[in-house]
């Protein structure tokens, strides 16, 4: 059974930093995708950053240059270092994992394993 548990959320002032961590257990798929998502009140969930088992990394445009996704395979953790936080980054942040499939010749990640979320609040 796959379990993902996020930690590291909190309240910070604008321009501050937070480091989110996601401890993953029971996930043995190879190749795989892992990512961080967020959902603000009244808004749809959106992807923030992703990484796959080949080391390919992607970021939402607004996160580029401020957020860094990384993984520690030895500790089975997925991390998100967030610097230069802005009030618009306020949201519940979730980590997710999925096997990386190939659909119509292209890699596809259909996230089915999710954590419970950790709240990030950024004040101006």
Q: Quick gist of this model?
A:
By secondary structure, the chain is mainly beta. It is built from no helices and twelve strands.
Percent in helix: under 10%
Give the integer mean of the pLDDT values. 95
Query: Which secondary-structure class do the elements indicate?
Result: mainly beta
Task: From the alpha carbons, calculate the radius of gyration and give it in angstroms.
Answer: 14 Å
Specify the number of helices: 0
Q: How would you spell out the order of helices and strands?
A: EEEEEEEEEEEE
| Number of E-state strands | 12
Low-confidence stretches: none
Query: Span between N and C termini?
Result: 41 Å
Describe the largest sheet: 8 strands, mixed
Beta content comes to over 45%
Quaternary structure classification: single chain
Shape: globular
Detailed description of the structure:
This protein is mainly beta. Helix content is 0%, strand content 58%. It contains no helices and twelve strands. It has strands at 3-7, 10-13, 18-25, 32-39, 46-52, 57-59, 67-72, 77-82, 91-103, 106-109, 113-114, 118-123. Strands 2, 4, 5, 6, 9, 10, 11 and 12 form an eight-stranded mixed sheet that branches. A four-stranded antiparallel sheet has the order 1-3-8-7, with no helix packed on it. The N and C termini lie far apart (41 Å).
Show the helix and strand layout.
Elements: E1 3-7, E2 10-13, E3 18-25, E4 32-39, E5 46-52, E6 57-59, E7 67-72, E8 77-82, E9 91-103, E10 106-109, E11 113-114, E12 118-123
Parallel strand pairs: 2-12
Antiparallel strand pairs: 1-3, 3-8, 4-5, 4-9, 5-6, 7-8, 9-10, 9-11, 9-12
